[in-house]
Amino acid sequence: MKRLNKTLLTLSLTGALVIGGTSFTSPVVNAVGNGPNYNGNEQVNTSILKTYDEMVNFLEKQEAKQDQMELEVIGQSMKGRDLYLVKYISNPDNPTILYLTQQHGNEQLTTEGALEFIKHLGTGKTKGILDNLNVLIVPMLNPDGAMGDVDFDLDDYIADGDRHLTRYNAVGEDLNRDHVNKIFPETQALHNNVLSEYDIDYMIDLHHQGAQSERDGELVSGSILYPTTENADPEVVHKSKQLGAVVFDEIDPTGWGHLGKYNGGSAETISRNGIAVEYGISTLLFEMRGMSDHFYDSYVLGQKSNGYLIKQTVNTLEVTARAISDGSIHDKDVAFWDTLQTQTTRTAE
Ligand SMILES: [Zn+2]
């Protein structure tokens, strides 16, 4: 009976999309923000997401193909999985950006997007971008959570498929609350072998948030925020805001993208704040809409949005790399932050 209801609801949703599809300006068709929703009536299957082993295989193949790319193991997860750093260092004097994905294991589309970006760096698609920029990428910092290989029960998680994905690491701890004490091997690998090792100017920390956040009455495709601890250097924060301006100007006007300001706190246990203070790195948090799996219905997003969200990630990485490489980031006006609305959560009808 439950399955029948699902089918009927999916059919009626599809019908609505076809009617809306007659107009290109229809937000129903174009905006991730008004795209498909889980709500128990759309398919969410984790088998379409790359496994950890598939990711490693992909990275090794790209390294063999790409002269400029270097793959390094920076440590191991609690369950012994190698953690990877992808490096493109053309000149140590160039500015350097770090892209970090999947500190939270159930926020996987950011990793899928980062892998696509890595592929582009090996082709003509991003020609010239690496001449004046070093790129570091840490994909899937929490592979145990991403593979559901954890010491706690995931039976109440929603998604179908070969595995469940969870936010937490193998012992149920949140890596993005560990950036001061650095207790866990995943966080230690990032700090000891990446953040302390390279002269990094910028970082984007990529996540997924719940599926019901909205700005100006429309569900968002994501939200962004700079460091908000008072201990961060004002110049570091200004450059973070410029990084955010590059992202906003790329994504928000697309029609399918709609960004809000993330409602985040000042705790330095979180990478956005802690890494800005400890290393003087200009950080940006980017939270994409909806998670790949969760026990909480309103956090999970149906997989029909995957293409847009991966594209949102790829475009974000490419445009920020380009803006730092050609220096245009330094001309970015940060005034939009003063009027960008903080997202709110849509309440169930
Ligand atoms: Zn997250």
UniProtKB/TrEMBL annotation:
Its cofactor is Zn(2+). GO terms for biological process: proteolysis. Residues 48-349 form the Peptidase M14 domain. Residues 1-31 form the signal peptide. SMART domains: Zn_pept (SM00631). InterPro entries: CARBOXYPEPT_ZN_1 (IPR057246), Peptidase_M14 (IPR000834). It comes from the Bacteria. Gene3D superfamilies: Zn peptidases. Transmembrane segments: none annotated. Keywords: Carboxypeptidase, Hydrolase, Metal-binding, Metalloprotease, Protease, Signal, Zinc. The active site is at E349. One of its GO terms (molecular function) is zinc ion binding. GO terms for cellular component: extracellular space. Belongs to the peptidase M14 family. PANTHER family: PROTEASE FAMILY M14 CARBOXYPEPTIDASE A,B, SLL0236 PROTEIN. This is Carboxypeptidase.
